[in-house]
Structures are given as C-alpha cells and as structure tokens.
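Quarterly update from the structural biology core.
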Amino acid sequence: MKSPRLPLRFCALVLFLFSSHAAATVPVEDWRPVDPAELSLKSPTVERDADAEALFWEVKIDDSADGDLIFSHYVRIKVFTDRGRESQSKVDLPYGRLYGSEIKINDIAGRTIHSDGSIVDLKKDDVFERTIVKASGVKVKAKSFAMPAVEPGCIIEYRWKEVRLNQSANYIRLQMQRDIPVQQVKYLVKPFPFPGLNFRTMTFHSRGQNGVLKQEKNGFYSISMADMPGVYEESRMPPEDEVKTWMLVYYSTDEKLEPTKYWNDYGKRFYNDTKSLFKANDEVRQLANTLVADAKSDDEKLQRLFEFCRTKIKNISDDASGLTAEDRKKIKENKSPSDTLKRLTGTSADIDLLFASLASAAGFEARIVLAPDRGDMFFDKQIPDQYFVQPSNIAVNVAGDWKFFNPGYNYIPFGMLRWQEEGQPSLIPDPKQPIWVNTPLTSHEKTRVRRVAKLKLAADGALEGDVTLEYTGHFAIERKEENDEDSDTQREESLKEEVKSRLSTAELSNIRVENVTDHVKPFIYSYHVRVPGYAQKTGRRLFMQPAFFQHGVPALFASAGRKYPIYFHYPWSEEDTVEIELPPGFALDNAEAPAPFASPGISEYKPTLSVTKDGKFLVYKRSFYFGAGGSLTYPVSSYPVLKDFFDALYKQDNHTVALKLASEAKP
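Predicted structure, tokenized:
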C-alpha cells in the first residue's frame, strides 16, 4: 500500500532547483503510418454497435526535473456511422484550473484520412477557445476544433500537449476509457527518481485488467489495457471516476498499512501539525467575546462568528471577487488568523481558520475536518491514504455534538456544506483519539425551488404573463456559482436559452436576476414571458398543459435499460403555483386534475387543479420532493422501479386539460 504524499517542503525544493527550465516542451512526433487494415475496417471490434472506435490512444508523461508535468496525447479513431461522425468530429480539450493544477494546452495537430488514403489536415486557424459546460454543470474553458471532412469510414487522428504547471506524477489519475471504445490504451510514464521512493499504481474498476507497470527504455514505464468499452453519459449517473477504469500513480516507500491504524495515526499527526494554524491571539479573543457577548444560545454565537467571517473578510479565493491574477500576487500571505483579521482579507482557507480561531476563543472545541468529495468518487475507508480526504471545513463541538461549517465558501448558508461533502464519513483529528463522523445531509425542505406564474391565455392559444422563480439551498448555491462571474447581459441570455430550450417560441422581457452574490437571500429570477401557440386550438376547443414550468421538460429517464447506478446529488423539493386567466367565453371541459402519488419515506407528488368561483381563472398547484431520508443512490437493479416512478411524474406533469368555447366572446 502506498505512503502519504511527498512532504511539501521537499516538492517545493525540487521545483525551486529546476524552475529555470519550467518552459521546456517535449518534441512533437511525426504521424504514424496507417495500416491498410485500419482503412478497410468496416465494423468495431470492442463493442458491436459502436458508432466509432479508438484504434489506439497513447499518452507519454514526463515527470522531469523541469517542474511541469507534460502529457503528450495521440489518439486515432475509426468512424463507422453518421452518429460517430457527429460525436467525434468536434473536440474539446479543457484547460485552466483543473486536476489541482493550472493546465495549458498546446501543439494541437490533427488530420482526417479517407478510405482511399487521401488526407485533409486540421488548420491552425480552426482551433479556437470557448467555455463548455460539463455534465456536472461546471463551466470550464476549452481549446476546441472540428476535424475536417469527416465521413463514415474515415480515420481521424489528433495529438496535443497538456502541460500541468508545477506538478509531479505523484497522485495523478490515468484514465483508461473514453466516450467511445478503445482497442488499445497505453501510457508511457517517466517518473522522477526520488531517493528512497518507488513508482507504483493502483487500479480502480479494473474490469479484470490491473495494468501492471512494465519497465521500458530510457527510464520509462508502460501501462496498457486492451478492448476498453466506452463510457456513455446517463441521466443521474455517479461521478465519472466511479464508473470508469482508471489508475492512480504515485511514489511510495511500499510500507504496508492497516486502515484503522493508518487513519488513527494520521488523525493524530494532522491535529498536531495544524493546531497552531488557528491559535487565537488577544485581538481574536477580544473580537470573539464582543461578537457573542449577548447571544442567547450556542447556535446564535456560532452564527455571529460565521457571519463576521463571511461578510467582513474579503475572500480572494472567490472567482467573482474582481481580483486579477496580478492583484492576487500582490496580496500578502496570511500566516495566522490574526493576520487575516488585521488585513480583513484572506483565502477561503484563511477564512475557515479565522472562524475556527474565533470559535475556540469563544469557548468551543474546533477542528479542521478531513472529508472526501462524493462529487469526485465514492470514499472507501479501507484504502488508507490521505489522498482521498482533504481539509474541507470546520467542525465545532456543541454540547457533545459535532456541527460542520464552511464560511470560506461564499454561498454556503450557515449550517450547510457543499453537497459533495454532505452525508460523508469525515475524520475529525484529535491528539488522543481521532473519530469518523458522518456529516449531515441537508433536507429537501431547505433545497427548494418556488415557482409562481400569473398568466393570461388568449383565444388563439398564446400565453403571456409574469413569472418568478426562487431558489434556496443547494439550488441557490449552484445558480449563484453559475452566474456570479457573468455580466447582467450574459445572465439574461443564459436565462433566455434555458427557457427557450423547453419553450422554443418563448419571448422574455423585463428580466431581473436578484441576489446573485448574496450568501443569505434566495437566488431569484423574474421575467415577463409570451409563448405563442402554448395551447393547441382545435375547432371550438383549446388544449393546454397547466403545468407551465414542466412544459417541454424531457423525461428524466428515457432509455429502457441502464448501465450505471442512479445517483442524485442531494434531496430537493419543488413548489409551483400557476394562475391562468382563461380567454373570454372559454371554460374547462370536464377537466380532471392530475393524480397524486408517493413513494413513502422518499418522495411525494401532490398536484391540484381548480377554477375560481367566477370561472375566470384556472389555478394549478404542484408540490414535489425527492430524497427524503437520504435515499440518493440506487443500484442498476432498481432502475425499472425508479424509471416507472419518474415516468409517472412525467405523465402527470404533461396532463392536458381542454377548454371549450361555451359562447362567442364579445369584441
């Protein structure tokens, strides 16, 4: 079993000694010859129904003394169908702050080889930069390009260099699967010769292939796997690294570790190494006493400390702080909570440590919590390595009960954590007996979207009126993160795109986006909308879906089968009120309300449909929640039942009512 990470001081020394060579690059390779058998290949060999297949994917990794970790990728893909042409001809290569390092992409080259052997090269001018949204909802920058003249039967191949600045090959992940099948994937890794350490791997989700290291020439090791199936996106699937085959490479002393002992020793060592980081001085103690002086309860005391740290300290880690990279370089590093308090400026970690220091000064027992990230992969305590947990938040002992806080993350309300760290076994360090405590899961009542629409239906089927959407809990956190760096115009355009994705004819105006950077108030959209043709007119009748906010939303689970488990990030709830003024002369034609149903202890759906006494307004109300009791992950075997549940929800949400023209409307 592998050892803890390399000491930071040692890594820093290595980087310092060789920093002058940090800009070095690996020479670009020539294209490899194409085998005629590859050109004549008519069908995939790994998966029978695949639309495209990678013939090979090779990556060279050099952990040299230059200080940067350089990945040289080369992939060759055979395209079999039009769907394969569509999916593989457009390529995005993410860059920026990824994988715990700053990533640069350069030396992109590509070409398309037709079945007759003719070649069309990718032009340098065809490579551009754009922002993409990953399946997780996270926005990232990417170098993008479209391969030229792609058609079924051809081969496309491209290569690029991915430079991870100031990073070594210690604890990096080597992906063995792509979004299409791969006949052969191979990594060639040249590790740095750290004295006393060996280069090792650990395989996850191996599919029977453990990828043993093989010694090659010139100090390289090779790792290869064959016939790797593609990884295809499914609705509400676990994190990619929870379903993909991948390998963790690291440097190790090969010391064998017993999990329980390892975590116990590590928790003690971490406590001793970090206890001085939030030590309170006189200024911190004085402030803590002032803030909690007249508080009526422990929760009120902690909330006051939390609010001070959140509102009075400028968070330079916040991507919406307005600070440039140059601005950040000029800011002095805080050595202690007293520095953070004195400068009223700090990183997210500084703010968390100040909160811990204030809590300690106010008489509470505080700890830095080591927590896994279930948005990345699912944690297993039987793997004894600190790599799988990170200092993530602050735990405070309140009357024997540990409570968790994260004031350094701007939009997380008091008493909540990032969803990725909720409901997780987290290690609380201690000088005598570290303990594992499960962090609480925020209930569905706190993560809610309230939607209100006051609309007017015209006799020609057009619908028009005012809409308000209010998000709280994890919904609000995500919306704020998505919008906080955008301009007002960009926020409006994003909302228009979102609405038009389900209501293609919708026309939005008077848009307001409120509380984008407020960590307490709900995130709110309000707008005026007009939707021509919302109701279908047939003779003297109008057919209309009263669930305005679900109109055009696709079924959550469309496929009949399922490959991966089902995974919901957090419990949530929805409350809708839709009031529609009916066109003159029209009335409901024996309309029935959608039927309610529930999954006891997990979910409930309750719709109501009524008409005001004067017959002028149709009022539709809908309440729904899911994930009560923490039921978030389901095995593939549960998919039929889960699909039936959400199919029933989809059917009821698409319930249509008929309006009949009872008399001719007056002009």
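The chain has a mean pLDDT of 91.
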